[in-house]
Each structure stands twice: as C-alpha cells, then as structure tokens.
Amino acid sequence: MDLGLRGKIAIVAASSKGLGRAIAEELAAEGANLVMCARGEEALRATADSVRKSFGVEVMEIAADVSQQSGIDLVAKTALDAFGRVDVLVTNSGGPPSGNFDSFTLESWENATRLLLYSVVGLTRAVLPGMKERRWGRILNVTSIAVKQPIDGLMLSNSLRAAVTGFARTLANEVASFNITVNNLMPGYTRTDRVEQLARATSQKTGASLKESYERWEKEIPMGRLGEPREFAALAAFLASERASYITGSSIAVDGGWIRALI
Prior knowledge:
Blueprint: E1 9-12, H1 18-29, E2 33-38, H2 41-55, E3 59-63, H3 69-83, E4 88-91, H4 106-134, E5 137-142, H5 155-175, E6 180-187, H6 193-206, H7 210-220, H8 229-239, E7 251-254
Parallel strand pairs: 1-2, 1-4, 2-3, 4-5, 5-6, 6-7
Helix pairs in contact: 1-2, 1-8, 3-4, 4-5, 6-7
C-alpha cells in the first residue's frame, strides 16, 4: 500500500528512542523526510544517522527541549530553514513522574504542563499556519491509554494527557475544512524505557520483582504480551498518510485490548 508520504516533511518529537524513534523510522520507510528532535544530543545523532543510512531520506536532527518555548522555536526554525514547510507533526514527550496527588508540588504540575500540554500547543502553533496556507496537514499527538482508562499512580499523566485530548478534539473541528487532520494515538503497555521506569516504580512500591510487574500487566492485556514500538508506529504512519484523509478528531488505542470500554 502506497501511503503517499514520499517527499513529505515530518517533525517527530522525542524521536531518539522508544515510540518516537519507531514513528520516525516508519515515516522514513515510507519516504518522508524528517526533522527529529530530542533533548539528548548523542542518542539523537546516533538515531538520525541510523535512519539516514537505513532509508535514504533527508534527516535534520536538533537537540532541543520542547517543554520550553526556546526549544519549540528552534525546532520550527530548523524545519522551515531546511525544508520550507512541515506536512506532518508528531508531538511526543517522555512521561512525567509517577505518584499520587499528595506527592506533587505546584512546581511539579507546572513542569508537567509544559512537558505534556504546552509542547503540543507550541509545536502546533508553529506549523499550523503553513498547513492552512497549503490546505494539507497531519497532526498526531502521542498520548496514553490513561486518557481513556486512568491508571493508578499516574496523576500528572492522567490529567494532562486528557487536556491534550480535549485540545486536539477541538482543534480537529476548527481545521478540518483546510484538509488538516488532528488525531491522538494512545499507546498501551509497550516495550519502552518509560514502561521500564514504571515497572521499577511499581516494584519499589509493592516489593514485587520487575518480572512480576511485567507479568501483572501482561495478565491485564487480552493479547497476553506488551506491545512493540513498531506496532504502534504503523498506526502513526497510516494516520499521517493520504489514505487517512477522512479520519480526524479520533483517539485510537494500540494496547492489545487493555482498555475495556465499548468505545
């Protein structure tokens, strides 16, 4: 299936590893040129080099913290200077600390808001005018299954990823007439560093081993296993494509059946 992504320009945030890297690789496999950003310069450079060699596309990498406006501005400027436009935006970030309400200060909330919500709003503001002018665009936000079925101990993530969902659903209606789609991707328990961090936190809290923590999650998943980043990235590539032109305002789970809700 030709997804119509060859020659498109995509920004993928937090793309040095995990879900972001998998999405970048999947888009590159379809022929999209990339602007990859992450905070860790060394890991980002290594990933960008790997993508170039593996897929033969143009890749610009920029070390930046998109929870800060200066980082957002740097990523947007790099993309526009290098390619002149952005067709696909994938917002993504690491997760905030786990914990219950009483464990977080106002500063914790402010930091999480910048990381999860302001980064999405800021990157969208930077690329949306060009998309509207060209009357084509794809905005994808990596959120979490927690917005559909909150996860105990993830107070910050549950709250602020839900805010991103509300933002995206509202924006989708505002820009639909410009042939711009806005969708959210909800990863379930997937083999990433973030899930490993959560497993460690669970182990420390309950006294269970890491293996037991993983096994508990696997028992909750009808497919009986954790997801792989490439399985999640396949959905991102489709939603970024020409083929997904009539899908907007949706939040789609890639979770092996973990969410029990009907819709």
